Amino acid sequence: MMRTIRKEHGNGGKQTYELIDGLFKPIFGSEILKSADDSTIFSLNDMKVGISTDSFVVKPYFFKGGDIGKLAVCGTVNDLAVAGLEPKYITVSFIIEEGFSMDDLERITMSIKKYADLARVEVVAGDTKVVEKGAADGIFINTTGLGVARDTQKMPSISKIENNQVVIVSGDIGRHGACIYSHNEDLGFEERIESDCGLLLDVISELMQEVDVAYMKDLTRGGLATALNEIAQKSGFDIKVEEEKIPVADEVKALCDILGLDSYYLACEGRFVAIVNRDEKEKAIEILRKYNGFACEIGTVVESREKRVYLSTTFGGTRILDMLYYEMLPRIC
């Protein structure tokens, strides 16, 4: 039987990791790729630099709180920022379907320029391809970012994670995924749920100046649950989180109830988790709440060989919070 790609391979969850580990990594064989982080860090002329690349296919292209251009810049810049890097340059490539609105393309390009300026990064290269009508769905964008490490001693690392450290989330979760769902379902939520798409540079910069952050990861495809599972599997520790502490906005909860969605798996595009020492958690939360009042402690790192994420429920039980393993919405970012 011929093997084929399924939509689930792009969900950011188990099937995505199976594709990466089972096909791409064995073929490329790169030692640098083994870190499997969103940004790869390496030495170049006695400097620590990092690179990250991402592609964006979100539909609709314009949504409450952003557009595909803003998303492309924020997504790549945030991947560099959570790695402890200072983003400096990005490249932007477009695949555009014949017949796409020139006015919409200009609006998207202006958005890229606006958020690149806000992120203090320069667009230094790009490419444009136009395909015949029906060969692509409107517009796809790829961005690649390069950043530099200013203080290598303070850079987060999976190896810095230790037993009894605290897991903190930078704000309420699931907004971006809920926003895109609201635009794809005729439920009247389009103007109620705003995407969390945004830059994380300033909050991460202040956090790293004041707190010794062990590790950070931004929450994108697969949501909070998938990000925590990735951290657990890489670090070798369990992570225990408490359901009653995880912040979810009322409008996101309402949408999830109507559609039968799980907010823990909804994508974010302007949130991250940070793991810090217990004696620094109050300082970390104080800083994060300057930027988002929902920032809070949600769990703890626990020594174990199982490398799992456990959720303490509001009913007093405990369940395994696994990686995303089913298809939610394919064009989420």
**Average residue-wise pLDDT:** 92
Rg on CA atoms, Å:
19 Å
| Total separate domains | 2
User: Structural class, judged by helices and strands?
Assistant: alpha+beta
Helix content: 25-40%
Task: Characterize the largest beta sheet: strand count, sense, and whether it forms a barrel.
Answer: 7 strands, mixed
Query: What is the CATH top level name of the largest domain?
Result: Alpha Beta
Question: Could you please say which CATH topology of the largest domain applies here?
Answer: Phosphoribosyl-aminoimidazole Synthetase, Chain A, domain 2
Termini separation: 31 Å
The largest sheet has its strands arranged as 9-11-8-12-10-13-14
Determine the strand fraction and express it as a percent band: 25-35%
Low-confidence stretches: none
InterPro entries: HypE, PurM-like_C_dom, PurM-like_C_sf, PurM-like_N, PurM-like_N_sf
Protein name: Hydrogenase expression/formation protein HypE
Pfam families: AIRS, AIRS_C
Family: Belongs to the HypE family.
In short:
One of its GO terms (biological process) is protein maturation. InterPro entries: HypE (IPR011854), PurM-like_C_dom (IPR010918), PurM-like_C_sf (IPR036676), PurM-like_N (IPR016188), PurM-like_N_sf (IPR036921). The protein is built from 8 helices and 14 strands.
Feature tags:
single chain, 333 residues, alpha+beta, 60s Ribosomal Protein L30, Chain: A, Phosphoribosyl-aminoimidazole Synthetase, Chain A, domain 2, five-stranded mixed sheet, 14 strands
